[in-house]
Amino acid sequence: MSKLPKKYAFTDLSDYGRAGGRFIASNLKETSFTPIHITTAFICAGIAAVFCIHYGLYGAAAVLLILKSILDAADGELARIKNTPSYTGRYYDSIADIILNFLILIAIAQATQTPLWFALIAFLGLQLQGTLYNYYYVILRNRHNGDTTSRVFENVTPLALSGENQATVNSMFLMYTILYSAFDKAIYWLDPKAIRGTKLPGWFMTAVSVFGLGFQLLVISLLLFFRLEIYIIPTLLTMTLLIPVFIGVRKLL
Known about the structure:
10 helices; mainly alpha; 253 residues; Four Helix Bundle (Hemerythrin (Met), subunit A); globular
């Protein structure tokens, strides 16, 4: 895992697309492709998956969601390989993720004739899961000199890095804040002392990585592939019940 020094790496169940992402990034290293291009590609894959769900092409949707996860890993890998980290890319990626998550669940709700309010609750649960995982992961990365384009507290507009425009960073940060701040505040309220904790062991991070977006999309993809789409939203809601469990374990640590 390139986001952390090897000494502190753990098995990330949501990061199965990393090897494919590295392969793509290594082959684009000497080209004019940028991480922004790769993020745009995963947006296209996600939108295509939404249309496939709408038209009942569940096998194709499953493949596209896995492809989206691989491309989601590739954009960050390309930024690291080319040594071009950017807040623009970081926020663009996150904004795209939350919008696609919403569209995917709405499409699944319509396909399974699930009430939209039920899908909305599942979406909120999905985002809280991902926020909890990212909260612990970013704490770990910042503590051990890992990737720092993600910050534990996203409450101040960052200064643009070399090669990016401050006005663009400002606008992307504003959009990010609108979409994510409520989830960030909720998770911080639930576990404010995590930032001062001394232990986030590998086994714990591996367990909580089931809340990572990659794993969530894998669950959705498998249920779509095996025509068990009716269970997707209930499964995501059930996973949300693990949030207090993980927080409780973290506090015991």
